[in-house]
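Researcher: Go.
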Amino acid sequence: MKTKLMAALAIGALALTGCGGGSDGTSTGMVDSAGTPLSFVDVVQGDIVEPGTYHLVGASDAFVAALDAVVVPANGYAPDSMITVGGVSFRCTADNTSNCNIAVNEDGSFTTVGTIAAVLRGGTFPTTETEQLILAERARAEAERARADAEQARADAAEAARQQEQAAKEEAERQAAEAAARERAGDAQKAIAGLRSTTAAVGTVAVVPRYSAAADVSITSPTVSFSTRSRSSASGWSVTTLSGTSSTHKDDLVVYSNRGAPSRVLLTQEFPTRFEDEDDSTASSPISDEITAAASPGANDDGGRIRSGSFPTADGTDKSFTNNYDSDTTDGNTDPDMVRITGTFQGASGYFQCAATQSAACTIGRRGNRYIEVAGEWSFHATDTARALVDDKSYMYFGWWRRVQTEDGTQSFQRFRNGLSSDHAATIGSGSAFTALTGSATYRGPAAGQYAIYQPLGTQSDSGSFTASAVLTADFDSDMLSGTVSNFSNASDWSVTLNAASMEGGDVDNDTGSTGWTIGTSTSKQPGVWDATFYSEAPYVGQIPDVLVGDFTAIFDDDDSDTNGDVGRIVGAFGARK
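Model: Structure:
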């Protein structure tokens, strides 16, 4: 039996498996036996089983019967000898130095001696259920491996496509970034050129700030039409932003102003030569004056001062009125002989009056935001307690205007700043009262303008508008003013130093101050310029001023000998309150 079982082991032991024990018809009882499990279905031509201890899995009755018919030599099989059992040929390989043999252990396992190799499987006997399960599992495993291989192939193809798409995207982004960088560099160079000359570079700006409304801005030489207008606020200053585009250029303009709310003043005080109170002893005594509202307004035209809910509302329209009031109730005639309409004159309440006749109608027309007398002689009537609205006339303003040519992108830039009333400026009387001041004061407020920078310090080229914060300190003992502009909206590591300059006479005159521009830890070797003027809310008589407005230019250049070799420019204006 040992020698017969040696043949069975040789056939089954040609490949190792992890299968479990016994099967139908087996006489080997391998469920709990020791040794490595071997399966008949694993016999493959040329497989080698090394000497060791094994147990057979899934041997069929037919195969065991075939083993019974085999006569095994007493001394085993000589090297390179062959035997066929159940359609399987095997041999003791030629490299053995002695015969191959097998010992059957008491637990049913087998120990081989020598190396045995399968030569050919004929498959002339049926497989057991266990073998069928093994084959099915092996087919399933092979199918799973094929599916996994196909899935991996799809994943590899998808990853290759993703990487290719990502590479194409990164290349497109790189090219777009390079194109954008070239465009920024070109724009920055044009902007720097435009910022080098800022005195009346574009045209003449006329600004009339308004309280709680966008400023009135008109431009002459050339005439500019702005298509958009908006209002915002910053640090207590009203900000008006305007833009307009023509076939040849684009204009952008920003105005900061600190115009306050209108105040109420007696009509007799605001217009003392027109609305005279001829009865000082009587309260609420009547006052009146004729209205002058011509189609072509003069210096003292009333067209913008008169308002009434009865007047026409549509631009370009006229409205005629018939008599509705009896001005003389003592003459026995109760027929109306006068037109009387309630309304206001520069905010003062009262009524308008006109005498209409068959030959002379009383007609008012609307032209834009003002009214005109079309027919009749109109007058305004009130009492001596009526109060008119008087606009703030002590405001200051500052801002900038940029024009970009459509054809070639050439830019021109202009900054501006002013105070409306000269008698509120600290320079009044040659600034003698201002020069007598002592002590110090700090002024804070917004700054705004344009910048351009061309690849300095390894950064990207850029240009555009900015907002920032200005802080200035006035030393009245030494008559020196100094400050900084920082917190730039476009670059947090920028700052401009307004170096100390003489403010004797109430201002830092005509770019006499110098500036220094710092980017991070690097400071330009080329100085810029700045100036400023002090104003007060009330007419100036020697008090510490309330506000100052100024403008500045900063240059960034590593070469202190060439003002046109700069790689950066900042041009702006500022307003600051005490």
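Model: The helical segments are 2-12, 61-68, 129-195, 267-270, 432-435.
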